[in-house]
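Hi team,

As requested, here is the filled-out complex form for the pyridoxal-5'-phosphate run. I kept the field names the same as last time so the parser does not choke. Let me know if anything looks off before we queue the next batch.

— J.
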Amino acid sequence: MNRYWSSLVGSLEPYTPGEQPRDQQYIKLNTNESPYPPAPGVQQVLTSFDYSGLARYPDPESNQLVTALANHHQLRTDQIFVGNGSDEVLAHCFQAFFKQTMSILFPDISYSFYPVYCSLFQIEYRQPALDDQFRIRLDDYAVDNGGIIIPNPNAPTGIAMSLDDIRTLLNKNRGSVVIIDEAYVDFGAQSACQLIDEYENLLVVHTFSKSRSLAGIRIGYACGNPLLIEALQRVKNSFNSYPISSLNQAAAVASIEDDEYFRQGCQKIISNRELLTDELTAIGFEVLPSSANFVFAQHLTIAAEALYQQLKNRGILVRYFNKDRIDNHLRISVGDRSECDALITALKAILSES
Ligand SMILES: *Cc1c(COP(=O)(O)O)cnc(C)c1O
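And here is what came back:
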């Protein structure tokens, strides 16, 4: 605390992102980035981009990107909102929809940015507990609330909800906004985008950071009813009129245009994940059923924190959360085949020494 700080700033507990070390080459399996490069068309955009255009502000509405996304999802352009990473889109959502008299709801084990936004925007929240198998109990969400946000698949568990469950959730919550954060949906879950025309209170949030190998350019977007999209535009235009740079917009459009590359990339991650799950199980891990590009696992004899540290000593980063209920689990991003192999080799060595 400092005399120049507002009392709000003094009260914040900011999000701690996964380590991005610059000092040493690690095998990075800690922040759910893609091990594969973005679509080749993205590189073409970057090398042929007319740099003199950077003297101008970008299109404030990012129309080219919104149109490409609308075509991709078979939605209308007034059903899409784009932002500078889905974290920014989510921040606008919290301001636009969740500043309510009643508490909002999200699971006790879920994306740890949500409580951070609540403290920044001074929003009350409750966190219904996942069940013993880390599944969402739908009944917990059939209560009055100021809004709901759930990642699907959930993070850091990787467990997906079915479309039927999401329908049940929506049917019981006609009066508040329900946000499904689909950061990992492309790795095997069903998207709720197809329900947007049925439920005017549904907002679905996506990111380019995971399945499109574009964490570095920071693009995220929301799909929903035009009235929800307009609310997000009102917040955005009260905060930053030009969130997407012209260079980033062009790169993002090139990614969408190469659907074949996108699908193949997701498919490779899914098959690596299945292999990794089998190998981890074979050496004594309990692995939750994942529909994401990471697995959440605990070893039956060695503590997660020790494993995290020993893997780091061997040049492999995974994510450890020192948090109630999950402090014996590791979240391991699915890398390419050689990264998965290196992880298993290191784990076998650690296990044989202990
Ligand atoms: C990674 C992630 C995000 C953030 O994505 P960005 O677009 O990189 O800001 C949002 N929600 C969840 C659940 C995530 O895991």
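Two things worth flagging: Residues 259-282 form the longest helix (24 residues). The mean pLDDT is 96.

Thanks,
J.
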